[in-house]
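Quiz preparation item.
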């Protein structure tokens, strides 16, 4: 062994031992029972199993399980069982050891968690759509067995995101997309707010590095100003709380880069117009646990004598916790500087649950559990209900899950005054199905706040909802269009499928009787003839039409079926010939097509003018231009479609077909022109449009393609479509237009609309 290799091994050994010691220190500092022996045993076993294996970053592989165990321990608050499972989580997948080996050495509970983690290894999404849904189902089902499986999986994903820089760019997009689509919402749903925020920010950093850096720089530049505002705002509050004798701490909460960017995108506003970057947290230690709710409101009343509260922005998550167990009182106050600032009031217990989610419940659990634990049970029950009905389309299944499990929430009341938590944008129909499938199936309308509304009526927080039913009512196909919750959609789909199967069966029986009566053979060929006659796409469609009596087999059907086939050898159509014959040379095969050149997904593909014109397609859904953060997607025809990385369709592609993604790089120079849309808004004055067109056409020499302007009550809004070379052109145009005095908003948008 060379001296250099020996030195490297010693350095690796020291790194491993330091990492494990840090894990032990964190565990010993926690309130869990001190089971050092089994953790050390798991570490030594995993270290031996992964011996000699390196990560892509070059460090020993065992550093990854140690890091995952560290996150599970110190950031999620899990105990020895979870720490052991985290240390062992890759052993079964990556080595020759089995789940049985783990069970023999560490017992059934640790083995069960490791088994659950092994089943959902390698990312939730596979190469095929059907595999994605199955893997996601496995992920959700493991929650029912032991919630710690998904908590460790989230820890695993967090460490992978923290070390994503060592991966290839196309892998980065896939992993970042999958993280934003599933893992960040899952972390949020389980109350892991800090981890959710970090997962979002890391995904944003890899998908849009320039914009991430710009927001970070702006946050840094405005830090002093925020600190001054925070001190001015909180000093009177501190004096008040000190006088009340409350044990407390006050913290500033700064909006994350991803949240800021997301708001800039959805609201079409610049960084300077985001006014809720700073929020204030008051975390107090109550004298007794039973008075903590009362104390939240006492603090609220006292600080609202200092600053005026916003009447519409009081959020009582104390008496009505979110489904992830989150509790706090949110109030928005007007500061002395004329700025609205949100204040979050929570106890130390509530803060632990906000930071560590359901894992913190074990810390406060005294045998009997509590109401928050019941919220988790409700959520798991919802998962089971969704999994009861198989979804034919994998992406529909994933979207349905996201609709229900990861949505923001509203509170509505039953006629008896009971509170029901529903996802935001729920309709009266969703509410009916949330109560009972029978109620949903037979509902004809609803009364919201004692007023009659249709089933499609969107509910608001605080609504009181009464469902009206009729025995003669049945589920209608149109309902699927305005049902929004997973439960309602899955139940409606299941009922419609059941009814459709019943109709298909009835129609098939009617047709069989017709064939029997006319002494005809009930063959696929004959069925196809009738499908062609009645323009039915499938035999099933034909059967349904017969059952519904829109088609009645008669004389025309008989004559078509009794016609003699024009083919001398009808059996030939059933033989799948590999090639077409030739009169002179029956054995000669057709000239083989030149195979399409395989694209190397590991390389960064250059988007030159020639390449764009010949081989690449610019996606119409998001219309990327040079300078945008983009990725390539290889479709079924081996064409490369270029999407913006934040395009909703690209987000689905990242999570569904990660192995088809390409890292692409613009190299077009100023040789090509691309259409781009700009949205403008401001004070309506005479000659304003002339100023706008003069800047774009005359000063900047940019070709305007379409313009739409609408003015109302002294305010104008408009859309302009023009041809540009790249993002730099767009930035120049926006900067110039913003200098017009009357102009208040200038932003790039994806679609041109003639009705802003």
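Solution:
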């Amino acid at each position: 062994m060379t001296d250099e290799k020996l030195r490297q091994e010693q350095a690796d050994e020291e790194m491993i031992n330091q990492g494990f010691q840090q894990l032990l220190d964190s565990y010993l500092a926690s309130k869990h029972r001190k089971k050092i022996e089994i953790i050390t045993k798991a570490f030594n076993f995993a270290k031996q199993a992964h011996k000699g294996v390196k990560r892509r970053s070059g460090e020993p592989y065992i550093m990854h399980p140690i890091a995952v165990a560290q996150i599970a321990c110190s950031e999620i608050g899990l105990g020895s069982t979870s720490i052991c499972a985290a240390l062992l989580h890759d052993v079964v997948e990556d080595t020759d050891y089995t789940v049985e080996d783990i069970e023999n050495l560490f017992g059934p509970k640790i083995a069960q968690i490791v088994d659950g983690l092994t089943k959902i290894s390698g990312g939730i999404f596979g190469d095929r759509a059907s595999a994605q849904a199955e893997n996601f189902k496995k992920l959700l089902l493991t929650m029912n067995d032991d919630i710690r499986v998904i908590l460790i999986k989230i820890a695993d994903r967090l460490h992978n995101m923290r070390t994503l820089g060592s991966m290839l760019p196309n892998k980065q997009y896939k992993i970042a997309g999958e993280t934003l689509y599933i893992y960040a919402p899952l972390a949020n749903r389980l109350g892991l707010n800090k981890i959710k925020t970090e997962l979002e920010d890391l995904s944003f950093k890899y998908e849009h590095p320039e914009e991430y850096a710009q927001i970070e720089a702006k946050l840094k530049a405005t830090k002093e100003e925020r600190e001054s505002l925070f001190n001015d705002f909180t000093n009177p509050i501190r004096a008040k709380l000190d006088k009340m004798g409350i044990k407390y701490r006050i913290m500033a909460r700064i909006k994350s880069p991803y949240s800021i960017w997301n708001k800039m995108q959805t609201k079409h506003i610049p960084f300077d117009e985001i006014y809720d970057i700073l929020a204030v947290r008051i975390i107090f230690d109550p004298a007794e646990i039973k008075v903590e709710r009362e104390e939240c409101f006492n603090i609220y009343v006292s600080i609202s004598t200092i600053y005026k509260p916003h009447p519409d922005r009081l959020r009582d998550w104390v008496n009505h916790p979110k489904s992830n167990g989150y509790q706090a009182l949110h109030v928005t106050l007007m500061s002395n500087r004329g700025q609205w600032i949100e204040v979050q009031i929570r106890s130390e217990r509530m803060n632990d649950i906000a930071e560590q989610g359901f894992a913190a419940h074990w810390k406060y659990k005294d045998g009997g559990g509590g109401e928050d634990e019941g919220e988790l049970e409700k959520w798991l029950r919802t998962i089971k209900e969704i999994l009861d009905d198989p979804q034919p389309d994998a992406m529909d299944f994933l979207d349905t899950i996201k609709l229900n499990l990861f949505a923001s929430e509203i509170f509505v009341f039953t006629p008896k005054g009971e509170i029901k938590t529903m996802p935001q944008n729920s309709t009266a129909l969703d509410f009916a199905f949330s109560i009972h499938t029978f109620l949903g199936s037979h509902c004809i309308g609803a009364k919201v706040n004692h007023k009659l509304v249709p089933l499609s009526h969107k509910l608001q927080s605080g609504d009181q909802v009464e469902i009206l039913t009729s025995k003669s009512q049945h589920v209608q196909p149109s309902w699927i269009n305005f049902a929004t919750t997973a439960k309602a959609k899955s139940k409606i789909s299941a009922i419609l499928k059941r009814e459709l199967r019943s109709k298909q069966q009835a129609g098939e029986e009617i047709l069989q009787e017709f064939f029997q009566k006319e002494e005809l053979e009930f063959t696929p060929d004959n069925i196809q003839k009738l499908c062609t006659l009645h323009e039915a796409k499938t035999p099933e469609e034909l059967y349904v039409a017969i059952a519904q009596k829109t088609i009645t087999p008669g004389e025309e059907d008989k004559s078509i079926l009794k016609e003699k086939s024009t083919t001398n050898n009808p059996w030939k159509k059933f033989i799948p010939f590999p090639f077409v014959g030739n009169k002179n040379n029956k054995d000669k095969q057709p000239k083989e097509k030149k195979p399409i050149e395989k694209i190397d997904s590991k390389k960064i593909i250059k988007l030159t003018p020639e390449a764009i014109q010949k081989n690449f397609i610019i996606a119409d859904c998001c219309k990327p231009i040079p300078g945008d953060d983009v990725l390539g997607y290889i479709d079924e025809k081996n064409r490369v479609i270029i999407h913006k990385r934040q395009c909703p369709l690209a987000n689905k592609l990242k999570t569904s077909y990660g192995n088809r993604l390409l890292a692409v790089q613009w190299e077009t120079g100023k040789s090509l022109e691309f259409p781009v849309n700009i949205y403008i808004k401001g004070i309506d004055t005479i000659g304003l449009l002339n100023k706008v067109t003069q800047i774009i056409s005359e000063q900047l020499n940019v070709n305007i393609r379409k313009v739409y302007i609408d003015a109302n009550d002294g305010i104008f809004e408009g859309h302009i479509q023009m041809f540009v070379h790249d993002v730099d052109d767009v930035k120049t145009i926006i900067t110039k237009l913003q200098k017009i005095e009357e102009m208040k908003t200038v932003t790039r948008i994806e679609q041109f609309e003639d009705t802003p």
